[in-house]
Amino acid sequence: MNGTSSTGSTRNGTSSTNYRETYERSITDPAGFWGEAAKGLDWFSPPGRVLDRDREPFYRWFPDGVLNVCHNALDRHVEAGAGDRAALIYDSPVTGSVRTYTYRELRDEVARFAGALKNLGVECGDRVVVYMPMVPEAAIAMLACARLGAVHSVVFGGFAAHELAVRIDDAKPAVVVAASCGIEVSRVVPYKPLLDAAIEESAHKPRHCVIFQRPQCPADLVEGRDLTWDDAVAGAEPAECVPVAATDPLYILYTSGTTGRPKGVVRDSGGYAVALHWSMSNIFDTGPGEVMFTASDVGWVVGHSYIVYAPLLAGATTVLYEGKPVGTPDAGAFWRVAAQHRVRTLFTAPTAFRAIKKEDPQGTRIADHDLSNLRHLFLAGERLDPETYAWAGERLGVPVIDNWWQTETGWPIAANPRGLEPLPTKPGSPSVPVPGFDVRVVDSAGNDVPAGADGAIVIRLPLPPGCLPTLWGDDERFVASYLSAFPGHYLTGDGGRFDADGYLYVMGRTDDIINVAGHRLSTGAMEEVLAAHPAVAECAVIGVADGLKGQVPRGFVVLKAGIDAVPDTVAAELVAMVRDRIGPVAALRQVDVVPALPKTRSGKILRRTMRGIADGAAEPVPSTIDDPAVLDALRPVLRPGS
Ligand code: COA
Ligand code: AMP
């Protein structure tokens, strides 16, 4: 064990026994607990009821509360006299610019863009798709939607046109807000052609597209449909905050499921705001005027919650960083940003640290910067391997806080509650369940397993505020995906165990989702692309361990009999198809053409066994295997030298 002692009091004035007591109260009296937390926000109409259990398993938080999330993130602080405090610092090594927005400036920009959206006919409840890189306009567009009660759906820039089209068809946006391009380390990525192709493919057509023109690659506009950001805001009247029901959706964020059809995770307004606000002081230990640097992307849930909403709800300063951990310009980039902006709380994915460590194994660049303001490093998005945990802690000299969560939950399920009570940390564990999350590890019959034993990680309902109330337009899929395996519980899809001290260990997904450089991807979606190739008879995609990205996908295909195709050519075409159809972020670089795939006697491909062999595990031959010779023949392909 390492880290902080569990004695003493925190700067919140809470005593050392606080985690356990707080946790117990959150589970035994969720309404009392979250009702109190809700008082930290401004409400047009404060909630009379905290938890609506009338439509189980569809629980709703603050059913009669009325608020506006943008008001709480911006206007509230300006009205309280903090208008001159820095709200957002845009730091962009790829364009060589740094710009600070005070709370007043950000409120004014957001109000004006909300006015522009209003001029385009956007109303409360309408959807707006945002397809933008890490520029302040992305956050401004999100907050402008929140201001109007419109529902944003941000699509990560690394996705291809088809993925964008699928999301447009599901969310049916009135307007799309996009940038003309994104800037990667070695290339400019034009976004507009991808947007045009997506709208061409989608059945739903947005009325308008607002294009933020960037000088690196200005876009051509479609007459009558497109207008520039500048033209949209020119002359727009600032829009006021619209009162919305706490249960109204704030956003939809699509995430990978086990098939090619992404899941539209719905986030409500009131529950989310209350949960994030609570998390800033109790987990992230970051308050008004303190600086949080979350190096992620607004296209992911970590970006939604801890680049945009949570720091602003707390009155803190958020750093929006358009760059990478390495290459912009070097492995000292994070330390430069942290020093320059006096960052207290750094939050990123372990893969970013592995990338830094690869380029600067001794962490020598850290010494070039004054990191005296840094108090903690939070890491999430994938399993934190003990080596990266140790390296980061030793080099930075601050506690390294692993925290486990999902797009669906919106905020951490397990973490070390730094503001509530700093607990000792243990390598390999994101520490303990966060108050509100009744986490259980169960066997296949749904019975709790003893400490130390592995099982499926589930959360007893109701989920706390902030978590998904449903999937967009699809209550049935919500229930089928998450609530039907273990009635009364939410299935996380992760497996793991508790230790005797109540620390949770999250060992990995039990389904076909993989995690590549902190990005969640579906092997099922990649298989759908491979299977569409005319020469492919059958295929499998598995995630294999990778020293930098945590996991990378590998594809295996069997060609149709009698097809005269060159295996290497097919493999190259398949790699290109996945990049073209899903996007560069899928990072599928290796496809092997093989004579057959190992299967059970009932015809199920033995993906887990294949993955185990590729990762070098002593994988037993399953008793259900149809033909062991097929597996034996595949071993040297899966793991050369085996
Ligand atoms: N727009 C367009 N393309 C993008 C993109 C974006 N927003 N983000 C990534 N891509 C592209 C990359 O350029 C790369 O393209 P390439 O195949 O032509 O090189 C491809 O998608 C894969 O990107 P990535 O997996 O990010 O790999 P990388 O080698 O570019 O960078 C890391 C590796 C570790 C530096 C990078 O993944 C990183 O910083 N990760 C942090 C993790 C993170 O933010 N996770 C979010 C959850 S916390
Ligand atoms: P996403 O929805 O993109 O946030 O991905 C969620 C998935 O990432 C989880 O279901 C886990 O499999 C994985 N994950 C996220 N954080 C952690 C963590 N701290 N430890 C282990 N796995 C994690």
TrEMBL record:
Residues 1-18 have a biased composition (Low complexity). Residues 1-21 are annotated as: Disordered. One of its GO terms (molecular function) is propionate-CoA ligase activity. PROSITE patterns: AMP_BINDING (PS00455). One of its GO terms (cellular component) is intracellular organelle lumen. Gene3D superfamilies: 3.30.300.30, N-terminal domain of ligase-like. It comes from the Bacteria. Residues 526-604 form the AMP-binding enzyme C-terminal domain. NCBIfam families: PRK00174.1. This is Propionyl-CoA synthetase. It comes from Planosporangium flavigriseum.
